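Hi team,

Below is the intake form for NAD(P)/FAD-dependent oxidoreductase from Actinophytocola gossypii. Please confirm the fields before the structure is written into the shared record.

FORM ID: S-0412
PROTEIN: NAD(P)/FAD-dependent oxidoreductase
ORGANISM: Actinophytocola gossypii
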Amino acid sequence: MDHVDVLIVGAGLSGIGAACHLRRECPDRSVAILEARDAIGGTWDLFRYPGVRSDSDMFTLGYSFRPWTKSRAMADGPSIREYVRETAREYRVDEQIRFRHEVIGAEWSTSDRRWTVHARHDGVDVTLTCSFLFVCSGYYRYDQGYTPDLPGVADFAGPVVHPQHWPEDLDYAGKRVVVIGSGATAVTLVPSMAETAAHVTMLQRSPSYVLALPGVDPLANLLHGKLPTRLLYPMLRWKNVLSQQLAFQLSRRAPKLMRSLLRKGAMRLLPAGYEVDTHFAPRYDPWDQRMCFVPDGDLFAALRSGRASIATDRIAGFTADGITLESGDELPADIVVTATGLNLLPIGGMSLTVDGEPVELGKTLAYKGMMLSGVPNFALTIGYTNASWTLKADLVAQYVCRLLNHLRAHGLHSATPEPPPGTAATVPLVDLQSGYVLRSIDTLPKQGTATPWRLHQNYPRDVLLMRHGPVDDDMAFDRVPAAVGSHA
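The structure came back. Fields below:
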């Protein structure tokens, strides 16, 4: 049976980054990566809808150890996919990937000091063991997006498409398109499709906050070629980190002020007299759900040009050639796109057991947002909700490396987070009020009330905690018997 020191699940942005950190900081550990699909890139390989791009700047979505050097701060999907693949090749972690390996479950045995992992490879069951299990599969379900009940959709004569499964041969040139949704995917699709479609309507039940950002970072553009990359990249990264934190903290502490600033920003980019309060004023406060960023205000430009429009209403039903709204209005359509969200699937849907006892994720507490109470030698990567995913993914991978080196240096074979007596669960690990979170809230690990069991969504604070803080706080360790030696 194959055994590795560290088994990574997922070869996307997080998994490749984790493998690179291990290569850099724990070069003597054996590593394997199991990837359910047949390509590197995760989300950035799966999503192929028109205009797919990052909703964070690449100076923070890029890896800390490998600078993003292209001019676009908010990059398109193919560029991000190639960046991840180039990184895998540069650090030779592509050699560690086993494609088409879907992980089904894993069992920890304290007596054997290892995980036994079950996967399915091309229909054949495969088993291997590892000393440390590192799940980097994100929290979205890859095989099926979320589509709500759409009354009468069977009556529509045209194609109904979910962005997660975009048909390569879909021709929307000169067609009337209705995009149902108001989140990051919808605001990306609308301006992109409007370039060639006859008209694109974004149909939303309720608005989202939308903020225009420069597609090219002005400071990066100014200093490119004047400073070496090793100095410029960290500078841009921290500048954007602090900007993100300022916007988030302002949203939390002065939501009325932030609402006003966002409203004024939208008004400046929309035609005079536009119904801003109907189409761009959500009922919730900023950052209760993820904010939508649009590079160079492309959504607003599409609305100004008349190539796109927004309808804020509810669906009453479908006809053969469009959608009827509760207000009585009708939206003509040749194609309907359901940008209605994603389904959550924590740790890729795999099962976990510890010494024969099943682990119920919803009943665990998250330790530093990356390990689970009572689960030895296990980590998962969940990025920030208020900043770039990779900022947290980098910190998690660096912490895993620190922990592994601590185990070896002290003759220990396992580390298990254990909350102090009286630690109470509070909110889910992903504490947004978005529909995709609320639909799966019972399946998510919970947070405690204080560090290291409380997730603060604060990168500078987490740098101190995870790069420079202790690795043994609220952690139970088991020592390796002298005659056995360490596998960790």
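SUMMARY LINE: The first strand starts at residue 2 and ends at 9.

Thanks, M.
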